[in-house]
Structure formats: C-alpha cells, structure tokens
Amino acid sequence: MLSFGLLIIRLILGLSFIGHGAQKLFGWFGGPGLKQTSGFFQSIGVKPGFPMAVLSGLAELLGGALLTVGLLTPLAGLLIAVTMVVAVVTVHGKNGYWATKNGYEYNLLIIAAAVGLALTGAGSYSVDALLFG
After folding, report:
1. Which of 9, 88, 105, 110 has its CA 20 to 30 A from that of 98?
2. What pTM was computed for the model?
C-alpha cells in the first residue's frame, strides 16, 4: 500500500508540474509562455528574466516528468522544492501563510511533498525501483 500511496502523490504532483513547466515554456494550458513569464520575472526583480524563466520552466517540466515516472526521485524532488522556495522568497512570502491571501501555504505543501518523496523514494511502482532495485 505504501508504494501505491507514493505513486498517487508522484502522479498528481509530477503531472501538475509538467503542466506548470509547459505553461511557462510554451504557453500551453492557458499559460503565459516565455515572453510573459520573463517579463513577470523581471518585474519582481528576478533578473535576467528570460534565462530565469527558461530555467524555472525547465526545472518544473523536468522535475515533474522525473517525478511522474519515478526516475531519479531525489533530483526530481529537489528541482520542484527549489522552484517553490524561489516562489516563496520572490512572491508569496511577504503575503503571510494563507493561500487565500496569496501567501506561501500552497508552496509549503508542495515543498513538503517533494522533499518527502526525495527522502523516502519513489516506491515499487517506479523506474527507480526497476533500475536500482
């Protein structure tokens, strides 16, 4: 049952981050794309905006993909957690805890899940289990 629980967490978190990365990089799923993402990053002091938008989008896309299949799970968790820490520091932290006030509550939940997966591993239903036993 533990591995099934880890699979559910990995699938939901991983697929969501694939989507977020695709929103930033390609403008898919109603996302802003690189031009608007880089402009937003510049406006909040994350400079240079374009390379940082690419890095953020790639971290989300790659971290999400790795997490979804359960490959290199510690790296996947780290990519997602670092992205969320940056979001807290640059956008959400100043707004307090609650997501209803654009605070960092949601980001902290994602960080906890990503770090938890990085520390526990992906479980039996993963590429990690196939490759590394």
Report:
1. 9
2. 0.95
